[in-house]
Design brief:
247 residues; alpha/beta; Rossmann fold; 6-stranded mixed sheet; 5-stranded antiparallel sheet; 8 helices; 34% helix; binds adenosine-5'-triphosphate; ATP binding; P-loop_NTPase
């Protein structure tokens, strides 16, 4: 599992985050600007922390003291960023297939299982009907679903030793509640079945509870608390229920 202990100055925030991922799905929860995306980018290798280390099991991904810095493409990590990044000249289907490990792609002679993976993920994200469209023909929410679907395919077909860690930065933020509800449950079931651990980012209390995940609560660049969602976000849930009550 992943162990993070980093310090990094970004904008007006002094990030000072230490935690270990011990559960299959962990949620990084905190207000806007608290440093959640920066933590994910440091784990993925797109941010070089000022000091500290990031370990995946026994492997050192970053250690500023000894100068180790594994580049992003060599890390056992797959990311779906906050904003969709799709290849504009490729169809939705080709974009999703692009996420597959190289040896699993069609040109390498795809097997029934691999076709099934793409079909299953496209069906989960409800993007089969969009398969032949190109990114400029998609809505914002549809683009986001395609982008997350590609990252999920990439994570579950990861061909290194062990499983890849899936990093999801607000993967459900552009979706309506009905779609989000179905997707949260389906995605959790799928990633657990493929034994793919997840660190996702949210500032949505309902989403954290629905995932039933371990929660790391972060504010102003610091980890305030880590534990089961019912413990860490009990106060937020109480406030949310009060807000929803009839006046
Ligand atoms: N490249 C950058 N240059 C300058 N400041 C930055 C940069 N990236 C992030 N910041 C600042 O660092 C702080 C943390 O940003 P970060 O994106 O990690 O927050 P976040 O918790 O993910 O926020 P949100 O929930 O709004 O996405 C913010 O104040 C942001 O404005």
């Amino acid at each position: 599992m992943l162990t993070v202990s980093i310090e990094h100055r970004v904008g007006t925030i002094s990030l000072d985050a230490s935690f270990a991922l011990t559960k299959p799905w962990t949620v990084l929860f905190g207000p806007s600007g608290s440093g959640k995306t920066t933590v994910l980018r440091a784990i993925a290798g797109f941010v070089r922390p000022d000091s500290g280390s990031i370990m995946q099991g026994e492997s050192v991904l970053v250690d500023r003291a000894s100068g180790v810095f594994v580049p992003p493409h060599l890390r056992p990590v797959r990311t779906a960023a906050q904003t969709a990044r799709l290849f504009p000249n490729m169809t939705v289907h080709s974009n999703v297939i692009y996420g597959m490990a190289r040896s699993a792609r069609p040109e390498a002679g795809k097997t029934v299982d691999e076709i099934k993976i793409v079909d299953e993920i496209m069906s989960l994200f409800r993007i089969q009907e969009l398969a032949d469209r190109r990114p400029h023909q998609l809505s914002g929410g549809e683009s986001q679903r395609v982008s997350v679907a590609r990252a999920v395919v990439s994570a579950i077909t990861y061909e290194g030793a062990g499983a890849a860690l899936m990093l999801l930065d607000e993967p459900f933020s552009g979706l309506d509640y009905t779609m989000r509800d179905q997707l949260v449950d389906g995605l959790r079931e799928c990633l657990m079945r493929w034994k793919t651990p997840v660190l996702s980012v949210t500032h949505d209390v309902g989403e954290a509870f629905q995932l039933g995940a371990e929660v790391i609560r972060i504010a102003e660049g610091r980890v305030l608390r880590q534990g089961p969602v019912a413990d860490v976000l009990a106060e937020e849930r109480r406030r949310l229920i009060e807000q929803l009550r009839e006046p």
